[in-house]
Design a protein that fits this description.
about 300 residues; mainly alpha; Na+/H+ antiporter like fold; about 80% helix; about 0% strand; globular
Length: about 300
């Protein structure tokens, strides 16, 4: 139990402080989000991959596990939406809530606290895979456009280049301790990610209904259960299996709201689903951590 509290409490504290700050100060999140997306998270990815001892086999297993998990989750959410007779804006929003995990803000942070640096290396691979899904296929799915155009948008983001650069320069010494500067910059990503999450929660109205609960259950309960089964099916290593399940148990990313607003869907319900799943995650994630053996 002490280890569990040591994992959840630091995350909750930083999110809570961001929430309190957001309640007292009307802050514009756009510059902070761009700083995180274009500088801090790429630095974290580059540094993690450069220092990584993760094998190509383990990385491939995680990507395959992610793909199978989310293919099954997509089918389950789509069948449920059709069974309920949801109109296109609503079923698109339901699928976005189920398929877009907060594997960045909360996922990287919680995995680091729960599973250490080796877990973080693997969580970065998952984060990249979920970014492809979210930024590459997400817009095409929501607006009905071409997949190629959406993937080109994804490739404009620095995440993949940071991953490639980190792998290419793995083990290469940097002059003048420049690698320590990159490491320090990357370490800033986790507290800023969590603070941004708290600020976002402070600016979002909390209204929870049946739709939001259903979306949260798909995201917080069904996704990690599917990930667990897929991990067993693929015979993933212990740490890869834990990362796959833990990252799959993350709440809905705020990008589900942003993309619903930009490309199609119900933005109001998407925003409420983000808030509902994030709040409920503080109840479900400790159970997932217990099931994974973090006690």
């Amino acid at each position: 139990m002490e280890a569990l509290l040591n994992t959840v409490a630091p995350v909750g504290l930083i999110v809570a402080l961001g929430f309190l700050l957001g309640r007292r100060q009307a802050l514009d999140l756009t510059p902070l989000s761009r700083l995180t997306l274009y500088l801090l998270v790429p630095a974290l990815i580059f540094d993690s991959m450069r220092r990584s001892t993760l094998s190509a086999e383990a990385a491939l297993g995680l990507v395959l596990g992610f793909a199978l998990t989310y293919a099954l989750l997509f089918l389950a959410a789509l069948l449920l939406a059709r069974a309920l007779g949801l109109e296109p804006p609503l079923w698109k929003t339901l699928l976005a809530g189920a398929l877009f995990p907060n594997s960045g803000n909360m996922g990287l942070s919680l995995t680091f606290f729960a599973l250490g640096a080796e877990g973080l290396e693997r969580a970065v691979v998952y984060f990249i895979a979920s970014s492809v899904l979210m930024f590459g296929l997400g817009p095409a799915f929501l607006r009905g456009g071409g997949v190629g155009e959406s993937l080109l948008f994804t490739l404009r983001l620095p995440l993949f280049w940071a991953l490639a650069g980190g792998l290419l320069l793995r083990g290469v010494p940097f002059p003048f301790r420049l690698d320590e500067g990159v490491h320090l910059l990357g370490q800033a990503a986790i507290p800023v990610l969590l603070t941004t999450l708290g600020l976002q929660l402070a600016q979002t109205r909390v209204v929870v209904g049946g739709f939001e609960v259903l979306s949260s259950l798909l995201r917080l309960v069904l996704a990690p259960l599917l990930a667990h089964g897929v991990g067993l099916l693929l015979g993933l290593g212990s740490l890869e299996h834990k990362v796959l399940v833990l990252q799959s148990a993350m709440p809905t990313a705020v990008n589900a709201f942003l993309m619903s607003r930009e490309f199609g869907g119900d933005p109001a319900r998407a925003a409420r689903s983000v808030v509902a799943s994030t709040l409920l995650a503080f109840l479900t994630l400790p159970l997932v951590l217990l099931a994974l053996g973090v006690r």
